[in-house]
Specification:
Layout lengths: L22 H21 L3 H16 L4 H19 L12 H11 L2 H11 L15
Helix pairs in contact: 1-2, 1-3, 2-3
């Protein structure tokens, strides 16, 4: 019996047996699992964490499909599950200072309103900000 160019012993095969599933078949399932966890994070109102996990998963999935990528996706799914089990961090609310509010209004308000704000705060009015009067 000839099965190739060279004789093969009675206990050896031409090609080794494949026990594991190819990476290309398992990565989409792993990526889907990460995205499911991301959806759970978003449903829990944890949008910043969900965005970070999604970004990392997309970056890994978009590169070479190796066993390292599969391990990374499994790690991201585990991280997302850990985030779901842990309590959400307390968020600090920042109050805008008065100066920042005035600066924001100055950028968005018409010239008269800016002049009025400056007069209330008793700040000098630059010449270019003074209201123009129509010449009769």
């Amino acid at each position: 019996m000839t099965s190739g160019l060279f004789r093969i012993g009675p206990h050896r095969r031409m090609l080794p047996a494949v026990d594991r599933q190819p990476i290309a078949e398992s990565l989409p399932e792993r990526y889907r699992r990460v995205l499911d966890r991301v959806a759970d994070l978003e449903a829990a109102g944890r949008h910043p964490e969900a965005d970070r996990v999604r970004r990392d998963a997309t970056r890994s999935y978009s590169r070479s499909w190796t066993s390292k990528t599969a391990d990374r996706l499994d790690s991201l799914a585990g991280r997302a599950e850990h985030l779901l089990r842990s309590p959400a961090p307390a968020r600090l609310r920042r109050r805008r200072s008065g100066v920042a509010a005035v600066a924001l209004v100055a950028l968005l308000a018409p010239r008269r309103a800016v002049a009025r704000l400056r007069a209330q705060r008793r700040l000098p009015i630059p010449v270019e900000m003074t209201p123009r009067r129509p010449v009769a």
